[in-house]
Amino acid sequence: MIFVCANCDGGADLAASVEATGAEVRLTGCMNACASAPVMAVREPGREAYLFGPVSAEAAREAGDFLDLYHAAPKGRIADATGLPVLRHCLIGRIPAA
Q1: Which of 93, 94, 86, 92 shows the shortest CA–CA distance to 36?
Q2: Is 32 left (phi over 0), alpha (psi -120 to 50) or beta?
Q3: Does residue 54 have a cis peptide bond before it, meaning omega lies within 30 degrees of 0?
Q4: What are the 10-residue block averages of pLDDT along the chain, 98 residues in total?
Q5: What's the rounded Cα separation, in Å, for the pair 5 and 11?
Q6: At CA 25, angle to CA 68 and CA 76, rounded to 5?
Q7: What is the CA radius of gyration of the chain?
Q8: In three state form, how does the secondary structure of 70-87 look?
Q9: Cβ–Cβ contacts within 10 Å for residue 32, how many?
Q10: Residue 98 pLDDT
Q11: For residue 41, what are the contacts with CB-CB under 8 A and spacing of at least 6?
């Protein structure tokens, strides 16, 4: 699931861009990455979480490809993100799976 900060400037536009890729998006409250707005996070139970920002419309178009890599990777740990030429440079952090 992709979460987009609804409080960020550009958050609604980011959510719409990500939804256009066919990905499921949930708007959420502040993710405390305001200096990198707009931000999105990818998180699923038992898998690593990723936080991206600032995410441009161009980077958002790679969300579907990111999810394909994420679901194919053991526990969501993507070893090679070179297929995401824009989005990979927006990575703020990766949080290990619990």
Answers
A1: 92
A2: left
A3: yes
A4: 96 96 96 97 97 97 97 96 97 95
A5: 6
A6: 35
A7: 12
A8: HHHCHHHCCCCCCCCCCH
A9: 10
A10: 85
A11: 2, 3, 31, 49, 50, 51, 52
